[in-house]
Every structure is written in C-alpha cells, then in structure tokens.
Backbone:
C-alpha cells in the first residue's frame, strides 16, 4: 500500500524530476540508448512485416502452396532414347499424378498461345477493331488455384463449356477497351479469334501487381482450344495446388519423378521437366520476414539492455551524490521501502519515457515509409506495421528491466546508514 502512495505522491515526483534536472545531459544520453533500442526493434519488425504484406498482396489471388510444371528436354540418355528429347505432357497424366501424389489438391492442365509457352498470339477481331492477344485454354478448376474476378454480369468457363466444346471466351480489360466502346456491354457479343467466332461471357478484373496475369489475356475452354489449334491431348503445363499441410517441395519432387516414369525419362535427369514452386517462394519469404523480426528483437533487446544498464549507472551516481539527502530522509523517518520504491520508480520512469519516445519515432518512420511505398507496383512492399501485442510486449520488457536495474541503486540507497550519511561532506 505504501508503494502506491509513493507513486501518486507529489513530493516523490518532485524529487525524481529534481534529480533528473541535476543530470540533464547524462540522463538524455542514457535515454537515447534505450530509445534507440526500441526504435530499431519497431522499424526492423515493421519493415519485415511490410515485405510480408507486399508479397501477400502480390499473390493474394494465387494459392500459396501452388506450383507450375512443364516439359523441357532430356539431358540424360535413357531406355534407348538419346539426350535432347522433349517429352510431351498429356491430359492423361492428370489421373496418374493424382494416384501417385495424393498430396495434390487441384491439378489443372493448361495450354496457351502467345505467352511464355510459345506460339503466335491469337488474332482477335471485332468489327473494324483488331489486335493480337495471348490466349489460354483452361478448365473451370483454374479459378480454385488462381482466383479470377469477373465483372458483374459475366462468368468464367464452366463444365458445360468444356463438355460441349463451346465457343465462348473471357476477355481482359484491355482487350475489351481495344475492341469495344466504353459504353458498350460486351457480354453476349461476338468476337473473331483466328477467324472463328466466340461469344464473350465475361470480362476479367485486372489485378495490379499480379506477376502472372496481363490485362489482355483471353480465356477459352480447354477442349475448344484443343479443336481450334489441333493440340490433341497435349498439355502446355500443369497448374497444381497441394493441400495446406503438405510439404510443397516434396510434392514438386514427387510430381517430377512420376512424370519421368510416365514419359520414360531417367530418374536422375534434372532438366527434363521444369517447374516453378510458388509455395517454396512463399515459405522463403515468410522465413525471411520471421528472421528479420527475430533479428530486430535480439538487436532491440540487446540495445535496450545496454541503455537500461546506463540508467542504472546514472542512478548509482545519483544515489552517491544524494547520500546526505537520503540520510536526512532516513533520519526524518523514511522507511527503507519508501527509499527503495522511489529509486525504482525513477528507473522505471526513465525507461518507459525512453521506450514511448522510441515507439513514437519508429511509428513515424514506418508511416513515412508507408507514404512513399503505398502506390509501389514494381516491388512487393506495403503497409509496414508492428502488431500492437509486440509493442505492448516490448513495453512490459522495458518496465521489467527498469525495475530490475533499479533494484541495484535502490539497495545501495537503503544500505546507507543515516548517521554515516549525515557525516559525509
């Protein structure tokens, strides 16, 4: 109870501020040490979170545990075949992959022309307007791996389109702008794709910052693509998503080994099938962000401890300088608990003030970074913030450290005998 009285006692705070004013420069320098520690912690943690948020925004419409697999050329002779043979992925591979790799949640065969898989772009005409655009042959399941947002009134490819080889298409925003007037409703209208008429059933909402999509992509049913370009059972590449708890790196390796078995490729051939593992990229990003947060915690706490030790040293010097004053207080009836509580309160006060100033400065720096990166499109970075729980935790650590370090000068003050203190010159 006496401790609470001391905390709210006006004379106590007058003595604390009086002590601080006597050692202004020394106190400010020491406070800066603690302030710098919490500032480093806040800024580094916020910067790591901004990077994490940026990648989440860039890939928010793509399954985090997804990967892409395509055929390349062999580099090892095997089963009578020479090197340089290019295996051809088939639609029949899907069933075998599902059986051999049970961790696969979704697998979508895809074909295209005018994109990274090769082939000339499709020539698309409507009236007097025309252009060349990348065209994709897809299944409805593609939207389960990469979410495609469609403008109101439209839709994506469905199962009936696949079964009936319908000549329907979904176009991108730029394709719509190039071929239609701004006040036109493209849904239900017809465009000519490589001299074949297709009905527009949807317009894609373009996603800024997406690394895989273009605002001019055109999507048609996989079976219709097969008929239009005579691709047979060939597949350009597979989009695959593993279950959430699966090891996506192992899934990638199992898929490649299964494809090698299907297409009679040497098990040790590392070039026959290419892949891009988005799940691995995500795991690396998350690991990097966590590493940055952990590093900021270690560096911040180490700097805070150094600053708090400095506060303890200041208080030790202050106690020595105030020996006579403390002796008078003890002679006038101040209990050891009251003297101890005042010194500890001064230590905690300086630590908390430094911590709050560091948090404010760190928040200001993060707000400045956010201001200059809010519209950044070329680099995945957005909204650098620190969870409030981290900030509160840091403050609690600082209060604890301030209390512990304050015990040393407090005990020194209590150990002073009143008679000895009054004799000191």
Residues:
């Amino acid at each position: 109870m006496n401790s609470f009285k001391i905390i709210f006692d006006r004379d106590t705070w007058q003595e604390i501020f009086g002590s601080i004013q006597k050692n202004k420069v020394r106190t400010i320098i020491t406070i800066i040490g603690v302030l710098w520690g919490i500032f480093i912690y806040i800024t580094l943690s916020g910067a790591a979170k901004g990077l994490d948020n940026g990648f989440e925004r860039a890939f928010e419409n793509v399954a985090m545990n997804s990967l892409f697999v395509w055929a390349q050329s062999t580099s090892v002779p095997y089963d009578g075949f020479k090197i340089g043979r290019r295996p051809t992925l088939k639609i029949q591979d899907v069933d075998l992959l599902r059986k051999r790799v049970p961790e696969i949640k979704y697998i979508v065969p895809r074909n295209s022309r005018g994109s990274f898989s090769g082939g000339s772009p499709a020539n698309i005409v409507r009236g007097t307007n025309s252009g060349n655009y990348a065209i994709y042959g897809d299944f409805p399941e593609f939207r389960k791996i990469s979410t495609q947002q469609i403008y109101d009134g439209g839709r994506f490819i469905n199962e009936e389109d696949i079964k009936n080889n319908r000549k329907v298409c979904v176009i991108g925003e730029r394709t719509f702008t190039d071929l239609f007037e701004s006040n036109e409703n493209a849904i239900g209208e017809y465009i000519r794709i490589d001299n074949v008429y297709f009905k527009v059933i949807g317009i894609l909402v373009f996603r800024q910052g997406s690394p895989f999509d273009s605002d001019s992509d055109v999507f048609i049913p996989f079976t219709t693509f097969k008929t239009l370009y005579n691709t047979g059972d060939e597949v350009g590449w597979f989009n695959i998503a593993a279950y959430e708890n699966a090891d996506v790196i192992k899934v990638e390796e199992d898929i490649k080994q299964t494809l090698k078995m299907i297409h009679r490729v040497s098990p040790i051939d590392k070039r026959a099938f290419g892949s891009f593992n988005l799940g691995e990229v995500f795991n690396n990003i998350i690991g990097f962000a966590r590493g940055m947060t952990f590093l900021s915690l270690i560096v911040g706490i180490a700097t805070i401890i150094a600053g708090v030790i400095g506060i303890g040293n200041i208080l030790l010097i202050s106690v020595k300088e105030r020996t006579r004053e403390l002796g008078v207080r003890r002679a006038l009836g101040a209990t050891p608990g009251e003297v101890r509580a005042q010194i500890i309160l001064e230590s905690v006060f300086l630590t908390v003030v430094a911590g709050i100033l560091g948090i404010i400065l760190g928040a200001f720096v993060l707000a400045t970074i956010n201001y200059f990166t809010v519209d950044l499109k070329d680099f995945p970075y957005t909204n650098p913030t620190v969870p409030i729980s981290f900030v509160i935790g840091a403050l609690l650590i600082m209060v604890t450290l301030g209390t512990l370090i304050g015990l040393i000068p407090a005990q020194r003050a209590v150990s002073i005998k009143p008679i000895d203190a009054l004799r000191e010159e």
